[in-house]
Amino acid sequence: EKGTYPHFMLKEIDEQPIVMRKIIQEYQDDNGQLKLDQDIRTAMKDADRIYIIAAGTSYHAGLVGKEFIEKLANIPVEVHVASEFSYNMPLLSEKPLFVFISQSGETADSRAVLVKIKELGHPALTLTNVPGSTLSREANYTMHLHAGPEIAVASTKAYTAQIAVLAILAVDTARVKGLELDFDPLQELAIVANAMEVLTDQKEELEQLARDYFGTTRNAFFIGRSTDYHVAQEAALKLKEISYIQAEGFAGGELKHGTIALIEEGTPVIALTTQENVNYSIRGNVQEVVARGANAMVVSMKGLEQDEDAFVIPHVHELLTPLASVIPMQLLAYYAALHRDCDVDKPRNLAKSVTVE
Ligand code: M6R
Fold first, then answer.
1. Are 105 and 59 in contact (CB under 8 A)?
2. Rounded distance, CA 266 to CA 252, Å?
3. How far is the CA of 173 from the centre of ligand 1 (A)?
4. Beta strands in 8-55 (DSSP E)
5. Which pLDDT band holds residue 345 (cuts at 50, 70, 90)?
């Protein structure tokens, strides 16, 4: 039940710090070490390449997961939109492991891939919020997201739970493989949980920003580089699905290759910057759009901020910034939809779980 909340989406946004703490607890043993099924450990260790299969927001979490697994566990990763996979089936490696990411565990597009790869005899691990769901039952292994029921059509806490669990999976694999790491996911996720609390307390500020930037606009652009690019894509999906504002998330460097032609007087452009190595370049992109009349908003991370930034998120580990930067994006989308009198929890034409291909 949504209790005192006007919408499930707002309640689920607020639950994210609790979900982080629950994940820390569930994936930790009595000695404070990571706790994972032995079978999953073996499957990850044996894989020479990982194929992540997902749709929508879960696909966006997969893009972040690829970075974790490649950077920390040193295994190559491909991320595929489930509905596209079978048209252009990639050349598979010798020992592939398929990782399905699905909040509901019922997405038909992902299930079609699972059926296909099982026929080929490949192993599958499902990350889902619903153990016992189709994708969980039919895969060899399951990792539970522990996000609690997600009712709003717009996925929020499942996205952050997916990213947290992917970080744990990547670090655990690195340890099993004996790789040296100076990244403790449980400690860093605890810092994230605190940052999330700070962020969810800033609703008034974000409501005002939503009014200023999305009040009457017909379209909006989100830009980022590197990790921030993945969050820009998720931010655009969130905004479009509940507020019906046409939104696009793209890589800052791609602006000059086409999209900048769409910038007019007053077009909202939201730029994310949480990574030191892209801070300078993305700010260059902001100047380019401002010079063409855009209404630009910079959301930066503490340590990289400048005076004119509209919103600054607390500092978290550079690998985990999506867990913090997505929260203002979720709240901006929520308030934009609210101000436009949209049905926040049940946007038109959409279902919570998409059980047709
Ligand atoms: O249940 P799943 O995670 O498999 O669902 C995938 C997408 O349908 C889902 O993430 C969708 O994009 C959401 N409405 C996004 O908020």
1. no
2. 19
3. 27
4. 49-54
5. confident
Summarised one tens digit per residue, pLDDT across range 86-131 is 898 999 999 999 999 999 999 999 999 999 999 999 999 999 999 9
Contacts of 91 (CB under 8 A, 6+ apart): none
Nearest to 166 by CA among 122, 227, 92, 85: 227
pLDDT in tens, 56-69: 999 999 999 999 99
Whole-angstrom Cα distance, residue 49 to residue 197? 36
Shortest CA distance to 13 belongs to which of 227, 137, 197, 271? 197
DSSP class per residue in 234-252: HHHHHHHHHH--EEEEEEG
352 is catalytic: yes
Query: Is the complex ipTM higher than 0.85?
Result: yes
**Three-state DSSP state, 17:** helix
Binned at pLDDT 50, 70 and 90, residue 199 comes out as very high
- Ligand 1, atom nearest to 57 Cα: 10
Query: Counting atoms of ligand 1 from 1, which one is nearest the CA of 55?
Result: 6
The DSSP 8-state label assigned to residue 89 in this structure reads: P
Q: Quick check: helix, strand or coil at residue 5?
A: coil
pLDDT at position 351 is: 85
Q: How much distance in Å is there from the Cα of 58 to the middle of ligand 1?
A: 6
Nearest in space to 155 (alpha carbons), one of 79, 82, 226, 62: 62
pLDDT recorded at residue 155: 98
Inter-residue contact 67 to 319 (CB < 8 Å): yes
